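pasting for ref
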Amino acid sequence: MTGAALAVVRARGDRVDVDVLAREAGLHPDLVIRLIRLGALDGPAGSNGSIRVAGAAARLARIARLRRDLGVNVAGAVLASQLLTRIDELERRLKRYETTPLGVEVITWIRTD
């Protein structure tokens, strides 16, 4: 798949070429395609050669900073970015847990029948 054929679908549904996404993140388009193949962006590739992403420019910029500041290779930067994202998610869940009365997580059930 070439860079021209690969498009990125943002959460709102508008399409952005890899070139535009690369420019927003300050990366070369070939590197963006490589990062997509390594799983740096969420979502399965569609039949039309597109991939669904949310916050792709920020994620790619984080990977670029990891490569630049720490000198890690591309795969290492992708892994570190994924781990940092997971840590952020767990910290948000922990904060929500800590703010719930008595430390009990409240689960709401909705009956659908």
